[in-house]
Structure formats: C-alpha cells, structure tokens
Amino acid sequence: MKKIMFNDKYSLTQAVLNGRKTMTRRVCKYDRPxxxxxxxxxxxxxxxxxxxxxxxxxxxxxxxxxxxKGDFTGWNIPKYKVGEVCAIAQSYETIFHSxxxxxxxxxxxxxxNKKYCGAGFKNKLFVRADFMxxxxxxxxxxxxxxxxxxxEDCLKEGIxxxxxxxxxxxxxxxxxHHGVTRSNCPYGQYKEYSNPLEAFASLIDCVSGKGxxxxxxxxxxxxxxxxx
Length: 228
Fold this sequence. Notes:
This protein is about 15% helix and about 20% strand. It is of the alpha+beta class. It has one domain (about 5-150, about 215-225). The strands form 3 sheets. Strands 1-5-6-9-2 form a 5-stranded mixed beta sheet. The chain has a two-stranded antiparallel ribbon with strand order 3-4. Strands 7-8 form a two-stranded antiparallel ribbon. A hairpin with a 5-residue loop joins strand 7 (about 160-165) and strand 8 (about 170-175). The chain is globular, with a radius of gyration of 21 Å.
C-alpha cells in the first residue's frame, strides 16, 4: 500500500480527515519545454488490458511531450491509480494524541513499542503505510494546467467559504485557508480573499513554493473519498 502526504502546516491533513478536502493537485515532472513540443499519450497493446477491458499498464493516464525532431521529455506518470486505496501519512506521535493508536502501540502501560519510536515518531515521512489508521480511495484522475481549476474545485482543495452578516445587515462572503494571517490583526485572524481562486493561489504558493500558481504548470488532479 502507498501512503499519501498532505501538508500539516496549512491543516490539509485535517481537512482530508474532516471530509472537507476531496481533491489534490500534484505538479507533473515534465512541463512543455517550448511551443515546438506537442502532447503525446502512450499507445496501449492488448496485453495492457485486463479481461474486463480495464487498462492495467503503469502508463495509464501518463503523458509526455515530443517535437517533430523526435525529442521526448519522458512520461509524466501518475503516482496513484483510480480505485487505489492509500494510507494518509501521519506521524506516530500524532496518531497517539488523536487516540487512534494501534493495539500494539504500547508494550506495557508506560513503554511504547520500539517499532514506533524511530524517525517516524515525529516525522511522517518515515512512517509505514500499514501502520496508518486512515485511508483514502482515488476516484478520478485528470490532467490540467494549474490555473484551469474551477471555483468549485478550489473548495474541494480545502479552501473555506465563510458567510457573514455585516453590521449594516448586508450578507457577504469571503474565502480563506489555514496558515496565513493578517499582520495587522492581534488575534491572528486569517487573511480573507474575495473569491476561491485567489485563496487557492495563495495556498498552492504556500505549499509548493512562491510563484507556483503564476508559473501555471501541468498537474495531475486526484479526486478521492475518505475510506476511514
């Protein structure tokens, strides 16, 4: 089983566990080098299909870039597959504090099993997928440029919509995400955006690096459902 990582600093793991985040975008390895390159897809042979007609090739949903000289970037291959169940990565410490620790977490009333005491206790990069208590199932995969995201999909990515009533009785709304605060607010109020796209652009730049949204890379879009 594979594990899938979501950013904790911006509360995306919790958004998945709450059922609020049901989609994630991951930047593809190869972008279009220049305008002389055209998008290409693999050609599947009969042995790339199972008896029910489903593609079982590892190049399913893959794509690459090739020009008329035969120069080829290599395949962008999705890490996850439709129908695949993946473990949501959490540190063992987080699992313990959430109350979802496995039955063998403790050897006795005061001693943690040594298999949970390594680097994975603090860092979820090093945890084992089969030790994780929560999972998602990939339900759909598509290829997009990052800026092609819709307002609806911004909300599926974990952007939060807040509806409020102003002092003069008018209804309004704003959009925000965890981790970005207004510097002039002593209580750490989250920065407000007028539309979902602005909030998502801020979020993806926080998670993937400043300028990511503006660079508009090709991404794999994974839609998923929470299993447990």
